[in-house]
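Hello,

Our lab assistant flagged a job as stuck in the queue for most of the afternoon. It eventually completed. Since we weren't sure the result was trustworthy after the delay, we are filing this so someone can double-check. Below is the sequence as submitted and the structure that was eventually returned. Let us know if re-running is recommended.
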Amino acid sequence: MKLRFAFLSLLFAAVSLVSAQVTSHTPTVFKNAPGTSGAVAPRIVDLAPVAIVNGATLTRADLIREEYTIFPYAKQHNGGIPKEFEKQIRDGAMKMIIFEELVYQEALRRKMMVPAQQLRRAETDFRKQFANPSEFKALLETEFHGSVEQLDEKIRRSILIEALLKSDVEDKCTVTPAEVRSFYEKNPARFHHSETFRFQTISVLPPANATAAQLREGHTRAQSALKQAKATKTAEEFGLLAEKMSDDDYRVMMGQHKPMAAEELAPQVVKALSTMRPNEMSDLIQVEKAYTIVRLQEHTPAGQARFEEVKAQLTKDMKESKKNRLRATLDAKLRQSAKIKEL
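-- returned structure --
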C-alpha cells in the first residue's frame, strides 16, 4: 500500500468530512424526507436507544437521520456510508442530536410556545416534501402509528429548537461593516491567495510492488476510464463514473476536491490544469506509476483580493464564525448540569 498512499499525499490533500465542532444546520422533523432532493435513506424505524439526555431517550433512527444529513453523498452509496468515515460521521451526528435535545429541553424549561397557526403552516410545508399523499400516509403509519398528533409533536419540537437557536445564536451574530473592514485591513496576508484549482478526479492506482503485468493492467484500465470520462457531459456524470472506477479516496465524494493551491499538486497535474478551461477534462496524467484524469471546474490566478471582492464572503464568514462560537458556548452551558449517557 506504500505507493498508493505516497501517491495520494503527493497529488492531493487529505480528506476531511466532519468538523469536531457542533454543526450548524437547521433542525428539521426528518432530514432528507422521501420526495426531497437530498440523500434519501430507507425509512428508519430502529428505535434502539443510543443516548439518554436528562432522562430522554435518543434512538438509532435519530442518529442515522443525522448521519445522512452530515454525509449527503450517501445517495451515491446506495444509502451507505464508507467504512473509513463511519466513526467520524457517527461522532458528529451524536454531538448534534444530543445538542438539539438539550436545546429542546431548554426551550421547554423557558416555557416557550408554538402558535397553532405556525404549527399548521409547518405541517403543510412538511407534507409538501412528499411526492403524493400515499407516500406521506405510509410514513405516518410506519413512524407515528398513523397519529397526526405524534407528527405534530415532532414538528413542534423542531420549531422550538429553531426558535431558541434564533434568540440565543442567530440574533446575536450580527457583524457591522466597520468590523468587516477592520478585519480585512488587519489581516492582509489572509487575502493574498495562491493560484488555485477546483476539480474532480478519476485515478487508477497500482498496488504496492506492482508487477509488470499489473502495471499493464492498470494502464489498460486507465485508458478505459478515460474513454468513458470523455463521454460524460456534466460534473454529476463524471462524478458517478469516479464512484465506479476511481481508486483515490475522493471517489466517495464523486471525485470532488476543494480548491487546491498549485504548490499542493504534482507538477504534471498543474501543467494539465493550467491549459484547460472550466468543464474541460485532461487526457491521462501519469504521476510515478499511477494515472489520473482531472475535470477542471474553476481556476483562480494568484493575487491580492480587493476589499470589494471579499466583503460579502468575509461578512458571511465572520457571521458564521461568531455563530459557531455562540453555539459552542450554548452547548457547553447546557451540558454543565445535564446528565448525558451515550450507549
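-- support follow-up --
The delay was a queue issue, not a problem with the job. The result is valid. The chain is about 50% helix and 10% strand. Residues 1-23, 30-42 have pLDDT under 50 and may be disordered.
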